[in-house]
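#structure-requests
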Amino acid sequence: LGSGDDANPYRGGSYSVVYLAPYNYHRVHTPVTGQLTHWRYVPGALYPVNKMGLKHVPGLFARNERIIGHYDCEFGKCAVIMVGATFVGHMTVAFTDLKTNESQPSPGTVTANPAVEMTRGDEFGVFEMGSTVVLLFDRDDLEPALPLGSSIVAGQAALRVHKG
């Protein structure tokens, strides 16, 4: 997440990783309703995020370029992480004029003042080509809503509350 302080709320929480192949839809939609409180741009490498990249590049998602949005939402805290990759020309987000790999934005955190109200399904950002989205939640009672390796479509749940 680019910061220990930003990572602390998610320790012991739940997560989901969504890989976008080149043939997939490359718009990222807000998975929750809530307030986008801050975001961070983290420069980095652009290693491939496919199975081969994951196998051969230790800590791949933490080494590649990222845009991270932090929400206070109906589920608690949530982070949406767009992870850059090989052949990703640039990433953009809907809530500011940030464009990676074009104007080389300054790394660091931007606080939304006031917070940006977003509704589940609103556009968060766009990848030029494929990559990966990582979702983090501060709560530990979420589990995958789909079998590992399944396709997911816009509006479909990635996680659900564990009822066990």
